[in-house]
Amino acid sequence: MNPHLNLEENMKLASVLEPSKPSFFPAMSKIVGTLGPQSRSVEIISNCLKAGMSVARFDFSWGDTDYHQETLDNLKIAVKSTKKLCGVMLDTVGPELQVINKKETPISLQEDSFVVLTPDLDKEATSCLLPINFTGLSTAVKKGDTIFIGQYLFTGNETTSVWLEVAEVNGEDVVCLVKNSATLSGLLYTLHVSQIHINLPTLTDKDKEVISSWGVRNSIDILSLSYTRHAEDVRHAREFLSKLGDLYQTQIFAKIENVEGLTHFDEILQEADGVILSRGNLGIDLPPEKVFLFQKTAVFKCNMAGKPAVVTRVVDSMTENLRPTRAEATDVANAILDGSDAILLGAETLRGLYPVETISTVGRICAEAEKVFNYDLYYKRAVKHAGDAMSHLESITSTAVRAAIKVKASVILCFTSTGRAARFIAKYKPITPVISVVIPRLKTNQVRWTFTGAFEARQSLIVRGIFPMLADARHQAESTNSTNESVLKVALDHGKAHGFIKPHDRVVVCQKLGDAYVVKILELED
Fold first, then answer.
1. What is the pTM of this model?
2. Could you give the C-alpha distances from 224 to 142, 253, 274, 427, in angstroms and in order?
């Protein structure tokens, strides 16, 4: 038997077909959905939330701020009506190279013909000439280099994407040999040069403008930093956010999209709050046989650092089909068995025909994979990896997870004001859900007093196993015993009302009393 899977030795194969028991938490893993043309009405967004989406991604590679604002306003209505919290992720454009086809007429490229890539945007796109939004391509590439052009969020179907080989550089123009026949149709085509450094800033002026207007206005929870290539990119973005009001609280997820980001992965991971493995672009930059190894190693590193790992491009075919392919279904499960926190859906929800069905299908696959995940082995590995260098908080929270395993607790209740304690518990991937009770903190900017806590609650919506609830602002984090008891009662009542805490269940509680963290085990009565 595979030691990484928790399967019974003499398990009958027919038992695989037994229907799963319904559960209040359908899956511990999280789903990020990209909202767009097919998924921006209040009705569809509400259904996406009910199906299991917990973070909404807004991709600024296309669409203006007004368009995305309208979508976000609809999301807020949907959140209110469904009573389901949802995080907001802003995805930057970054140094993305694009083919500019002003007329939007389809362009046919024939195998073995030549096409010129030019930075002259005044020219029209034709089958012999493609204008691009970058003047430095001719100095970045050399003869024999590979260039890939595909529809943004392309489905991998080679009739809509093309491989080019650089034949010669002519001034600012690059002449390429077409390696496969294709038709480029539609608005936005991105261009990817394999393993070449593109000398453009990671956070572009357009990104900064969007963040400081749209991002600030909507208090974004997570910034997805496209094309993160160095730790300095994350530091620069954090410094920029720190000057923008509430956005000093925004988490930064580094999006690893090419070999340059992969090379500096360890330093990037230290700086970032989480990592998104952008397998679409990585799949072009890496040899196919290396993709799985990168994924497994990167996810492992994120797990051991206690930072969320998000995997993209899992069910491309569901953009146009109601069922995923066999390979895709297996791929989703493997991402969860590797230890990923969340699955990010792009084209599948943005312009796909079945956004809601895609989310529920991915959620069901995640839930099945979680059932055979070897929690015991994972816990031992994580404790061993942390070694003696554990902080006080981590040693307490890992003890809470151990206690939950030993007493077969139904949930772990964690009281937190910054979210750190809950994230440390989640690092050890307990088999039980972690109810993170976020206690608002009172803070002042010398002008007025405000309560914080909503950011911390929403940011945990991308972490596997954490389910946040925001406590009443009257309950302070480091408060008296009586208020702690009343918050605990509210949390337990919430659990009983929703059916995930039952009579005679055991519940592990992790909370701060004064300066000390306490772990206790409660056995509930009738």
1. 0.91
2. 31, 5, 9, 21
Q: For residue 512, give the H/E element and its range.
A: strand 506-513
* 38 to 41, 224, 323: CA distances (angstroms): 8, 22, 18
All structural domains of the chain, each given as residue ranges with its CATH number in brackets, are: 23-94+201-372 (3.20.20.60), 98-193 (2.40.33.10), 375-524 (3.40.1380.20)
Question: In whole angstroms, what is the distance from residue 107 CA to residue 97 CA?
Answer: 18
* pLDDT for the residue 26: 79
Of 189, 97, 83, whose CA–CA distance to 134 is shortest? 97
What's the rounded Cα separation, in Å, for the pair 290 and 172? 34
Convert the pLDDT of each residue in 383-422 to its tens digit: 999 988 788 889 999 999 999 999 999 999 998 888 889 9
187 φ/ψ sector (left φ>0, alpha ψ -120 to 50, else beta): alpha
Sequence-distant (≥ 6) Cβ neighbours of residue 496 within 8 angstroms:
502
* Beta strand pairing call for 173-178 and 161-170: antiparallel
Q: What percent of the chain has pLDDT over 90?
A: 62
pLDDT digits (tens, 9 = 90+) for 297-331: 999 999 999 999 999 989 988 988 999 999 999 99
10 Å CB burial of residue 16 (0-12, 13-18, 19+) is exposed
- In whole angstroms, give the CA distance from residue 402 to residue 407: 9
Residue 485 makes CB contacts below 8 A (sequence gap 6+) with: none
- Residue 506 CA to residue 501 CA, distance in Å, equals 9
Judged on CB neighbours under 10 Å (0-12, 13-18, 19+), 87 is buried
Strand partners, 519: 510
